[in-house]
Design goal:
The protein has 437 residues and is α/β, with parallel strands linked by helices. It is 29% helix and 25% strand. α5 crosses α6 and α8 packs parallel to α9. The longest helix has 18 residues. The termini are far apart.
């Protein structure tokens, strides 16, 4: 349908019906072949001097991270759990960047303990805290500075910089901060990170953003300071909706080539990084849900499925001003003249709609529905605990091998997590009663 390894019939030659029998519905299925192909396409077109980082926020599944690590991709993480995930997936500390505007002391301390490539600091208070932690540990921690630039990016669906944001340090403060870097003896200021926005489908817009970022990086490289690395962000998009077009990778590579070449000539020892999440994994995944019931309501035909917005908030329009249909299909054999359905999940809310007025072959209970391009910001960005349904299963298909890479939440485990545990007693008698219990 959209990706040769993930079609209406199956994933890497395995039928959806067979996979559903193995995994149970609802579930997410990922194709390892699609992931490798996406990475190969990027490397074929992008300048070879541009190193790639995988942003776990798109999909933090350990098995996907491991597949990318096997191909030499570095990691960008935003939480302690993501940091520990990439370590388990085989990443070495020198290949990890830690970003995010609200890092905890525990997260910063773990970064110092590991000596990761860089903690990307997003405020001066964060630098102060990191300085204290590194000094107490007797270590020198490498840091990057996230910059909120004065210029704005173009054609991003979600703007991350160039406006008042919680992200980064304003450009106007950077020169003064770099001039005072000796005030942080336990920190080594080694890099710059600038991320303008996400879901960009225009190659020239990405190139324009990159040119502005590199120009700013050169302007900041004064007073004897020069960055070891520059993270230019990325924000490469994938088309989800009608009239959206694929990002032209050949055009992107051609537009970036002279910019990267000029930067390499100006700063030959400075590494260049592009971080990617959605572009690598979105079309490697399909969300599969089964029809439970079909019904009519006031002139509209509904198919009620066993997984809805609790599993795939983005398909239901979560975080969007306007809900639009993701690419979706009835999986397996088609058959019959198309009928118009609204697809809902099992939740007690009218917003639980994952496909609105969609033309599909006639549906019956047990039929499988696939929402494509769901490998990024699927379950990880969804309220999987809403109505206590829990996290869906996730499976990875690699040739003839099928791996369960996340178990479905089980009822007993979900209930066990709610077992009361005394934290503070109101009086001594209550404490004594608690001990007896």
């Amino acid at each position: 349908m959209l990706e040769p390894h993930l079609t209406r019939e199956g994933v890497e030659g395995l039928s959806w019906e067979a996979l559903a029998r193995i995994a149970g519905t609802p579930f997410y299925a990922y194709s390892a072949a699609a992931l490798r192909d996406n990475l190969a396409r990027l490397r074929r077109h992008l300048p070879p001097a541009l190193n790639l980082l995988y942003s776990l926020k798109a999909n933090p599944n350990r098995s996907l991270v491991q597949k990318l690590r096997e191909q030499g991709v570095g990691c960008e993480v935003c939480s302690l759990a993501e940091l520990e995930t990439v370590l388990l997936a085989g990443a070495r500390p020198e290949h990890i960047l830690f970003v995010g505007p609200g890092k905890s002391e525990q997260e910063l301390a773990r970064c110092v303990e590991l000596g990761i490539k860089a903690v990307v600091a997003e405020s001066e208070q964060e630098l102060d805290k990191l300085q204290a932690l590194a000094a107490a540990a007797g270590k020198i921690q490498t840091v990057g500075l996230r910059v909120n630039p004065d210029f704005q990016g173009s054609k991003a669906r979600l703007v991350m910089g160039g406006k008042p944001r919680q992200f980064g340090i304003d450009e106007a403060r950077l020169a003064g901060l770099l001039a005072r870097r000796d005030e942080y003896p336990a920190l080594r200021f080694a890099g710059l990170h600038i991320y303008m926005g996400t879901r960009i489908l225009d190659a020239q817009a990405v190139a324009d953003n990159t040119g502005n970022i590199l120009e700013l990086a050169r302007a900041l490289s004064t007073g004897g300071w020069r960055p070891d690395f520059i993270d230019i962000g990325g924000g490469l998009g994938v088309p989800y909706f009608e009239k959206e077009r694929e990002l032209d990778l050949a055009a992107l590579g051609a537009a970036l080539a002279p910019l990267i070449a000029a930067q390499r000539q100006a700063m030959p020892d400075t590494e260049l990084y592009m971080e990617l999440g959605r572009f690598l994994v979105a079309d490697c995944g399909v969300f599969v849900t089964a029809v439970r019931y079909t019904k009519w309501s006031k002139g509209q035909r509904f198919a009620v499925c066993d997984g809805g917005s609790n599993c795939h908030s983005a398909a239901a329009g979560g975080g969007s001003m306007l809900r639009r249909n993701f690419p979706l299909a009835k999986l397996g054999a088609a058959g019959g003249e198309p009928e118009t359905y609204t697809l809902s999940g099992p939740l007690c809310t009218p917003t639980d709609v994952i496909g609105e007025q969609v033309a599909l072959p006639p549906l019956r209970p047990g039929d499988l529905i696939g929402i494509f391009r769901s490998g990024a910001y699927g379950a990880t960005a969804s309220p999987v605990q809403f109505l206590s349904f829990g996290h869906p299963a996730e499976v990875l298909v690699d040739g003839e091998t099928v791996w369960q890479v996340r178990a479905r939440d089980q009822l007993q485990r979900m209930l066990a997590e709610q077992q009361p545990r005394l934290l503070r007693a109101a009086d001594e008698q209550e404490a004594a009663d608690a001990l007896v219990c």
